[in-house]
């Protein structure tokens, strides 16, 4: 059983930024996949709801140096 979340991420200006955000998310326990779209400034995350929470996802992106505008 997996859950899916979409985060609006502000502050990414290049492809290396998106890679940083993806790495920060994928490093979290319970996160199975993370994919960032630079054009839409959104991160799509697949995770195990028992192991990671939307707040965890938001914190990881913020600690990587970016701003999460809306969390699911
Ligand atoms: Mo390139 Mo993205 O310096 O911060 S990694 S703009």
Automatic annotation (TrEMBL):
<feature type="domain" description="HMA">
    <location>
        <begin position="3"/>
        <end position="69"/>
    </location>
</feature>
<comment type="similarity">
    <text>Belongs to the cation transport ATPase (P-type) (TC 3.A.3) family. Type IB subfamily.</text>
</comment>
<protein>
    <submittedName>
        <fullName>Heavy metal translocating P-type ATPase</fullName>
    </submittedName>
</protein>
